[in-house]
Structures are given as structure tokens and as C-alpha cells.
Write a structure and sequence with these properties.
single chain; 435 residues; alpha/beta; 15 helices; globular
């Protein structure tokens, strides 16, 4: 299949919302990108709309129930810091970077989720040191391209301040620029999380979030400049996209508190969870309810009745309850017993301690117990869509795509590189392409 571009640069601005589009159109570098671009400011995300499932969808063209990354974190009841779906092995089927590598193309990924251990030429995976004895740099080196990461850390490691933003994205930007100028990859995937962080801890439309969008505009400009300096700009395609939006919240729902009160979660004298029959696994704006023993009809009946009563009163924060089968039909995990959606203004936490609902205070957020905004909600929530802007080689100019889904991005990106992802849930958005 003919390649429509030599270099595909996919820039994920985590938590970039359709509501940001008017602001982007006024910023210098986004404005320049938009001038001769095709774009969609009505991209429907997936369910649950959290970062890791979203990014696995972007590179596979499939919903979570098919690619297997059904949440950010694993079901690990009682674990204070559950492990995330960091590793490529968690994705079922092929990916955009796998197919690019098979075709002999040069690949690079910087903090792109679910790429630890992936076969990528220049790979700096997003993975956290999640054990007391682990060191962040050692964990990253072991799961990515060792020499490449050592070089980037030697050059730009001084910019980082742990995982704090905007310093982390500043480090990622400099590494991205260096990678473009020296490696000239055919496929580059880069993930910036500054905006997502600011929205979590300051609110959706906060001054801090607006400042992050402005920083992203500068980052976009630096990437464009690097492509020109490397002499590959004319043969490159730039994709700027978001993975999900976010919604403000004032209350945290802790359903596991009630499951504990009903004898479905047991704790020891130190309040540590030691056994469970039912468990609420948070996806922030939504949550999975798992039953440990699928033959345990008594527990199922207790949970069903509890949620029926809770959903009768909006003060309890639950907008909708669906079955696992219905969740699977929406692209989420069909293995869950139930899936629940929070009303706007609420989100789910996994704690089994304290009250069922907590009012979120500034002190809570400063201590990182809770957040002021989150995602994970149904893609059907109002004002919740994200965006995609495509410009450069292989892209039709001045075209507005009225609507697309996140699952359509992978097949479309594959077509640009003359690749195929096989039978996907998404489709190629031919209106974007110049062929």
C-alpha cells in the first residue's frame, strides 16, 4: 500500500477538550497548524475515558474490550497504589508501532502509555516506580531503549522534578526535539500530560489549565521548528490530538465503604483490606463493580439492590447502572458484574474508609487525596468530546470533519504510513486524506 507521508508525528495533549478549540485557534502555533489543516472538534472518546485505554485505542483502532486495556489500573483490591497497564504485553493484537516496525520504518515513543517493553527503536515508556525499593530512572531504563534514554537523561534530566508538571513535559519536549533532529523517525508518538495534571488539581477552566494550553502551544511550535531544522517538515504529517476531556467535581463517592458495611469487604485491625466478595474498581467518572465469585448469587443480589436504592436519589451521585454485558457492548470490560456512571460533579474513589461521600476540599486536593476535575465518564456526557488536528503531507487542506470516534484514529494513521491494522472497530477517515 502506498505511503502518504514519510514522517508521522502524533502529539497527544492529554485532556485536550473540544471546549479548548476557540482558545487554540487564537494561539500562534495552533493557529498556524490549523491554517491548512483538516480537523475534527467533535471526536467521541471511549468508555471508560481514562488515559491508558484511550492511548491503547489510538494505536489499535479498537475499543478496550478488544485491546484488553480496560482501565488505567489493575483490579488489586486493598493495594494502596495499584499497578497500571504499563506494558505492551497487555495490549491484545497489533499496534501502529508494531506494524511500522514490521514495515522497516523507524519508530520512537516518548511517555506514550502502554509501551513498556515494546519493540520501538527509541522508546521512553511511561512507567512509574511503584515499589518502595524501585528507582524511577532504573525502571524506565529497564522497560525502554536503554542507550537512548541514558542519552536523553544526560542531556535533559536536569529539567525534571520527579513527575511534577510542567517540568516533566519540558523534559519530554527537549527529548522530542532531539529525537526529531537526530533520529528523524518515520513514526513518532509523544504524550504530554501538563494540561491533564493542571485540570486535575486546579479545575477544568482554571488559570493553571489555561497556562498549560499556552505552554502546549509553545511545545507545538518547538516541534514544528525541529522538523524544519531536520529537513523533514515538507515530508511530515503532524497530528495534534486529545484523548478525552474532563469535568469538574465537588464530591468523591466511596462505594467500597458501603460494600464493607454490607459485609462484602473485610478489613483487619489496621483497616487493611484482607478479603472481598464485591469491589468497586474506580475509573474516576465511572467504575466497574466486580464480584469475586461469579456464582455468588447472594452477593450479586445484595449489590444490585444497594445500587438500585442509591440511584433513586441524586444526592448519592450515581447517574446510571448497567450490566457487564451492556458495558461490553459500549466497549468497556464485559467481565465486570456492573458498571456505574457518576453524576456530573461526582467521581469514584476506591477507599473503603470514612464516609460514603466526601466533600472535596482544597486541603484534600493539595494533599493529593482528591482532585477538582477528572475524566473516565461516558463519552455521551455533554460537552465532553475531544479534538484532532491533522496537517502536512497526505492531509487534505481546509477540511472540517463533523464527527469521528477515537477508534477511527489508528486506522487513519496506519493508512498515512501505508500500513494496515487489520479488522478494527474504527474506520479510516478518508475525508482527512489527500488521496
Amino acid at each position: 500500500m502506498e505511503r502518504l507521508t514519510e514522517h508521522l508525528i502524533v502529539i497527544s495533549f492529554d485532556c485536550l477538550s473540544a471546549l479548548d478549540f476557540p482558545m487554540l485557534s487564537e494561539l500562534q502555533n495552533f493557529q498556524t497548524l490549523l491554517k491548512e489543516s483538516s480537523y475534527c472538534k467533535n471526536v467521541e472518546t471511549i468508555y471508560p475515558s481514562v488515559t491508558y485505554p484511550c492511548h491503547a485505542t489510538i494505536v489499535t483502532g479498537n475499543f478496550p474490550n478488544r485491546h484488553g486495556v480496560i482501565n488505567n489500573t489493575f483490579l488489586q483490591p486493598g493495594k494502596p497504589s495499584p499497578d497500571w497497564y504499563w506494558h505492551r504485553r497487555h495490549i491484545k493484537g497489533t499496534t501502529l508501532y508494531d506494524e511500522a516496525k514490521k514495515a522497516g520504518l523507524t519508530t520512537a515513543a516518548l511517555l506514550w502509555p502502554v509501551t513498556a517493553g515494546a519493540n520501538i527503536d527509541y522508546n521512553m515508556p511511561e512507567i512509574f516506580a511503584n515499589r518502595p525499593w524501585q528507582h524511577q530512572i532504573a525502571v524506565s531504563l529497564r522497560n525502554g531503549s536503554t542507550i537512548y534514554q541514558l542519552d536523553m537523561n544526560r542531556r535533559f534530566g536536569h529539567l525534571r522534578n520527579g513527575l511534577s508538571q510542567p517540568e516533566l513535559d519540558d523534559f519530554v519536549l527537549e527529548s522530542t526535539v532531539q529525537t526529531i533532529e537526530t533520529k528523524k523517525p518515520n513514526l513518532l508518538l509523544v504524550h504530554f500530560t501538563d494540561l491533564d495534571t493542571q485540570r486535575h488539581y486546579h479545575g477544568f477552566a482554571s488559570d493553571e489549565a489555561i497556562s498549560a494550553v499556552h505552554r502546549h502551544d509553545n511545545r507545538l511550535g518547538r516541534i514544528i521548528k525541529a522538523l524544519k531544522k531536520a529537513g523533514i517538515y515538507e515530508n511530515s504529517t503532524i497530528i495534534a490530538l486529545g484523548d478525552h476531556s474532563a469535568l469538574d467535581e465537588t464530591k468523591a463517592i466511596k462505594l467500597n465503604v458501603l460494600l464493607r458495611e454490607h459485609g462484602l469487604i473485610e478489613v483487619d485491625s489496621r483497616e487493611k483490606l484482607i478479603s472481598w466478595k464485591a469491589y468497586c474498581n474506580s475509573c474516576d467518572g465511572s467504575a466497574y463493580i466486580y464480584i469475586k465469585d461469579k456464582a455468588d448469587t447472594e452477593t450479586k443480589e445484595t449489590v444490585t439492590e444497594l445500587l438500585r436504592k442509591l440511584s433513586e436519589n441524586d444526592a448519592n451521585g450515581i447517574e446510571k447502572v448497567i450490566t457487564g454485558e451492556q458495558a461490553g457492548a459500549l466497549g468497556a470490560d464485559p467481565q465486570a458484574y456492573l458498571m456505574i456512571e457518576a453524576l456530573q460533579g461526582f467521581y469514584f474513589k476506591e477507599s473503603h474508609q470514612g464516609e460514603y461521600i466526601d466533600e472535596i476540599t482544597a486541603e484534600d486536593v493539595a494533599a493529593k487525596r482528591y482532585t477538582f476535575a477528572s475524566h473516565g465518564y461516558s463519552p455521551k456526557k455533554e460537552n465532553y468530546n475531544t479534538i484532532l488536528i491533522a496537517s502536512g503531507k497526505g492531509i487534505r487542506k481546509n477540511t472540517v470533519v463533523p464527527y469521528m470516534q477515537l477508534v477511527d484514529e489508528g486506522p487513519t494513521f496506519a493508512r498515512l504510513l501505508g500500513l494496515q491494522l487489520g479488522a478494527t472497530d474504527g474506520k479510516i477517515i478518508t475525508e482527512l486524506l489527500s488521496e
